[in-house]
Amino acid sequence: MNGNSGRKPDSFFRAAGEILTPVIILYLSVLGATVAVMGAAGLITGAGSLDAEALLRACPQLPLISSVCGYALALAALRQTVRYDELRFGRTISLSRTHGDWSARRCAAYTVFVSIAGFLWSRLLLSSGLPDIFTGYSAQASASFSGQFPVLLFLSYVLLGPAAEELVFRCCVFRRSRARMGLYPAVLLSSALFGIWHGNMIQFLYASVLGLLLAWGYEKSGRISVCLAAHICANLLAFAFAVFNWI
To answer: How many other CB atoms sit within 10 Å of the CB of residue 93?
Structure first.
């Protein structure tokens, strides 16, 4: 009994560490890129890397530049992690009985469904009064879109962001937790972590529901490319709407 009871906590922490490692890599990549970009900006402007307000006044695009660099760094850092998981689970996941049955038309229909569902869900959240309660979203959205370069926004929110997030939350977190805990806990855990990653309550609610749809698509199609296409299209629709509002 003592041997079994000693192994259970060890097994739990090993599983938690394995599942959370890709999220930590993503976080450290973005953090490291932010420190590097702020330091470089401080040297160039002479404002000092610790004076964030002065740096942002001199270059309002710094958060987006940091985001783009962080996502690019994460994609590079996650290559070995993804290859390791491919050796364990295969290049595609054979989890669903319908795995491999998705035609191009079905993939396109799923992509359109996720994009429209995500857009309608975001409109519902924004009109619900919750942004008046959780004010962090409005401040973050204003800082993210107002006065920013569309090219940087597109790279961060439409291309690099979805690519890095799909590798982390579906390709790694979902597959690893699916192998250890089963389908439904894996869907809930990967979606919740995906929501937490977005940093405020409104985006948590939005991203968690989007994460449920993306995890379901990954489970049914077995292909991360399907989830990536849906994620990119959902963000593209939100990006177009946000840029139109902030121009």
So the answer is: 21
Q: Whose CA is closest to 202, among 132, 144, 130, 102?
A: 130
For the chain, residues with pLDDT lower than 50 are: 1-6, 94-98, 247
Contact 158/232 with Cβ under 8 angstroms? yes
C-alpha–C-alpha distance, residues 22 and 127, integer Å: 34
Residues 6+ apart with CB under 8 A from 164: 26, 29, 71, 74, 75, 78
Residue from 214, 212, 177, 171 nearest 78 by CA? 171
Contacts of 165 (CB under 8 A, 6+ apart): 26, 194, 197, 231
Q: Which amino acid is it at 163?
A: A
Measured between alpha carbons, how far is 46 from 66 in angstroms, rounded to an integer? 18
pLDDT in tens, 175-213: 999 999 999 999 999 999 999 999 899 999 999 999 999
For helices 136-145 and 224-246, the axis angle rounded to 10 degrees is 90
At 114, the amino acid letter reads: V
Please name the residue that has the structure tokens 């991203």: 207
The pTM of the full predicted model, rounded to 2 decimals, is 0.88
The CA-atom distances, in angstroms, between 235 and each of 13, 74, 93, 96, 101 are: 34, 19, 25, 27, 26
Distance separating alpha carbons of residues 176 and 178, to the nearest angstrom? 5
Inter-residue contact 145 to 246 (CB < 8 Å): yes
